[in-house]
Amino acid sequence: MGEEQDEQRMKKIAASSYDYENDSRWADYWSNIFIPPHMASRSDVVDHFKRKFYQRYIDPDLVVGPMPSSGSSQPARPPPAPSSTTGQSQTRGSGSSTRTSGTSPAAAPAAGSSSLRWDRQTVQFSMNAWVFIVAVLAILPLTPRNLSNRATRLSFMGTLCSSMYSLYSLYGKPRAWNLQGVQVWFRSIYGTKDFIYVLYCITFVTSHLQLKFALIPVLCRALEHVAKFLRRNFSRATLYRKYFEEPCLWVESNTTTLSILTSHAEIGMGFLMIISLLSQNRNFLQTIMYWQLLKLMYHAPVTAGYHQKMVSQVKLRSRIGNYMGIINLSH
């Protein structure tokens, strides 16, 4: 019983961290839900339908509870009985003290949790901003070769640390350090975008190849995180409105374009690594491991849509090329 509860808890965490906005099926699913407008604006109702969507399209084993009620279940408080002025003042004083003592302990954890979330967001912003600056320095053509190679490696290491920190803050650590507990925890992070970036960065941190093309997914990820943080926390700042508002707005409105660019770069890196087998820095094991990572990206829900579309385009173009070659040979 306890193991099933742990597994369901991990599944709920995976469902809450799933990237619904980049999944085209979610928009179609949500447009077909007919509920009153006052309920559609409630976050708990939206979260309920997101879990239903996750259960239907991604993980059928997820257990989804009933939808939250539309109204409050607390009954109306009856009017106070008439009493003397002294009794009324004592009742009001005791009631106010009860309310004060009742709300103070509840407010303290809320403030603590908000400050904890703020710290996590700040740490992620700091790491991703640093990665973005170092990656831009690495791809500049005027940067010396030694400095560029070092900046490339530091970019992958920064993204690796950022992804591992994100996994730890969202999923924590295994509740039991045994085989079954680690398996339950690993199933919850397997296929997430952060886990994919961990494997991606490990592949290139340990590589002797210095391919600047591999920095495109890292740059897109860092740019998206930095833009979201600036828009959420500095939207009223004068400096932000003057210099960063339009770029951040463009990034948030073109996340699909960045995801398509990332998938193109990741698949292109697979072919570049095959070509690199003809060079002196060839590494057969690393190339095989990267193509296994591409296989994971092809099947993982967070990246499957973009990679499957890209692979289908490659297959279509190869068929058209073969067909055109047959036509030319026939003439």
Automatic annotation (TrEMBL):
Residues 64-113 are annotated as: Disordered. Its main location: membrane. The chain crosses the membrane at residues 125-142, 154-171, 195-223. GO terms for biological process: endoplasmic reticulum tubular network organization; membrane organization. InterPro entries: PER33/POM33_regulator, TMEM33/Pom33. GO terms for cellular component: endoplasmic reticulum; membrane. Belongs to the PER33/POM33 family. This is Transmembrane protein 33-like protein. It comes from Thalictrum thalictroides. The lineage of its organism: Eukaryota, Viridiplantae, Streptophyta, Embryophyta, Tracheophyta.
